[in-house]
Amino acid sequence: MSESLTEQRRQTLVRFEKLIGVHFNDIELLNTALTHTSYANEMDRQVPDNEKLEFLGDAVLELSSSTYLYSHFTDFSEGELTRTRASIVCQDTLSKLARKLNMGKIILLGHGEESNGGRERDSTLEDAFEAVIGAIYLDQGWEVARDYVIRQLAPEFENVKEGVNRSDYKTVLQEIVQQMPPSVLTYVEISVNGPDHNRVYEYAVDIDGKIYGSGIGKSKKSAEQMAAKETLKILSLK
């Protein structure tokens, strides 16, 4: 048994199982999914962290959402499907869903990360959400993991079906700038930090040489999306 899986911790995870509607055969997997790298580092790596499960969960999440969109949005073009998936499967949505499940309260964090607000950090919550999906997939298989993803994302999909605007922020911003010729929109790299397997990117929007919103993400694409979203807020267009 992992050093972090005390009886009290086990009871916390059992309550979380009931909340998400998935009973684990190996509750250690769920514990790992909710263990941040900062905690593992403080324990001298005597306990595993959730990075690999996050990697796996991200793939399951993308395939699950793609399958759902393909089956339920039959009148959408490939481009519309891609933009819809990007607007739903993003840090904003995943961190919001993690908060609804109170993941921030039960993630194991190192002392430094916790004192710096890690429990409320969007990237930490997004990672935990994806890692739980990865854990479900390993423990229960594809169908259970897919069904869990769809249950969590169902309200977001329904918003799209009902016409609620869940736009790809980059596309929206690009369309706006195209209506203001000869304005030129570019994305500028501000910084890239972290090890190769866990990069954190920061990008900013540049319109005609003026910097507007900036954004941080685990990929160039997500950082640009966040920068576009912030720019739309600055322009009072979103």
N-to-C SSE series?
HHHHHHHHHHHEEEH
**Range of strand content:** 5-15%
Low-confidence sequence ranges: none
Task: Calculate the mean pLDDT score and round it.
Answer: 88
Counting helices, strands and paired strands, the structural category is mainly alpha
Q: Could you explain the architecture of this structure?
A:
This protein has 238 residues and is mainly alpha-helical. Helix content is 60%, strand content 11%. The protein has twelve helices and three strands, in the order H-H-H-H-H-H-H-H-H-H-H-E-E-E-H. It has helices at 7-20, 27-33, 37-42, 51-72, 78-88, 91-100, 103-106, 111-115, 122-140, 142-161, 169-178, 220-234, and strands at residues 185-193, 200-207, 210-217. It has a three-stranded antiparallel β-sheet, with helices on one face. A hairpin with a 2-residue loop joins strand 2 (200-207) and strand 3 (210-217). The longest helix has 22 residues, at 51-72.
Task: Please render the helix and strand layout as text.
Elements: H1 7-20, H2 27-33, H3 37-42, H4 51-72, H5 78-88, H6 91-100, H7 103-106, H8 111-115, H9 122-140, H10 142-161, H11 169-178, E1 185-193, E2 200-207, E3 210-217, H12 220-234
Antiparallel strand pairs: 1-2, 2-3
